[in-house]
């Protein structure tokens, strides 16, 4: 048996990085490590002068190990502990997610007898909802933010939505963030040194999805940046989310057994729920279920194929080899007639795939990950 495998195409990753840089040259790009933390992939992305968006201490350390300079690693996850902040204090730009984190950072800076530049994550009023991330905009007053004498509020971070395909909505979001940055800068009476706009640029998962019109977004953003650059001469950042890696990944696994049961055909494969969990999660949800990114994007957000050709087709369910009925990859899928040893391939497996799967459940071997370059001249 060949182990389940994730294959990431470095040529596609490089192409996606170039697309973002070309469309949004005024913005620095941060790779969202949570999308895919595979170390060789991180090292390649870092070699393309892309920074890192880290959601945890260990992601900061991964980014540093991949060669990302400390000034290009932005640590923005919630619930940071004193130990997290002490270990990462000089390894990244820390984004405080709460007043408590500001207190912790101020204490550490005082103990080290220095001033520390930090950012704050803001839950903006234009979003208008409560949430677990950031400090509500209306609480970000000079009185509240001046209580930390060993800190300098150097920048802001906002992130309210992932997987957006409408360039006009992305543009309006950027416009709102600029307006918020101007308000915070005026409140503090000091120029901001960076604005992190978060993520949001999505990828098409199905034939019904249209990709973000980067050309139109580029033209609009060029005018927007020119409007604000004299008032807010800050470094502008966006997080790549899944854009760089999603379409670069495929997942492949082997048919271990084929069963007929009361009129249904089951292809039993290795590494279902514990190898690529997103299809399994989607298969369990009703069509009207509204789940949250990145665990669930939409139904049929990938293509599942059998790596063979045959004139004989059959309707099958594809299930994993875990001892749970929830281990489902697909139901009622028309495929060429399979044999034991054939391989199943799933697309759009470059982001939120291996990293979201339940690999310890069931005691099975973890999938193998590999970075390849399909065009030898790309590396």
TrEMBL record:
EC number assigned by the record: 4.1.1.95
Active site, UniProt feature: 323 (proton donor)
Superkingdom: Archaea
Cofactor(s), names only, from the UniProt record: pyridoxal 5'-phosphate
Entry keyword set: Lyase, Pyridoxal phosphate
A molecular-function term among this protein's GO annotations: diaminopimelate decarboxylase activity
GO BP of this protein: lysine biosynthetic process via diaminopimelate
Protein name: L-glutamyl-[BtrI acyl-carrier protein] decarboxylase
GN (gene name): btrK
